[in-house]
Amino acid sequence: MVRDVSERRLMEEKLRQSEKKYRELVEAATSVILTWDTAGNITFINDLGERFFGFSKDELLGRNVVGTIVPRPNRPAATSLD
Known about the structure:
mainly alpha, two-stranded antiparallel sheet, 3 helices, elongated
C-alpha cells in the first residue's frame, strides 16, 4: 500500500514537471501556437499569438477562430472583437 502511494506521488510529480516544461516551451516558442475545440472555439493561444494578432487571451479564448483570427470567406479579419 505504501509503495503504491509513493509510486503515484512520483508519477504525479513527473507529470507536473512535464507539464511545466511543455508550458515553458509553448510560451517561449517563436511561432504562434493555438488550439481550438471541435466547434472551432479557441481554447489556447500562446503569448506570441496574442502579440501577432493584437488581442489578449481574455479577448480570444472561447471565441470562434473563423471570423476572429481567420477571416470568413469574402470578408476581412476582425480588427475589433466588439
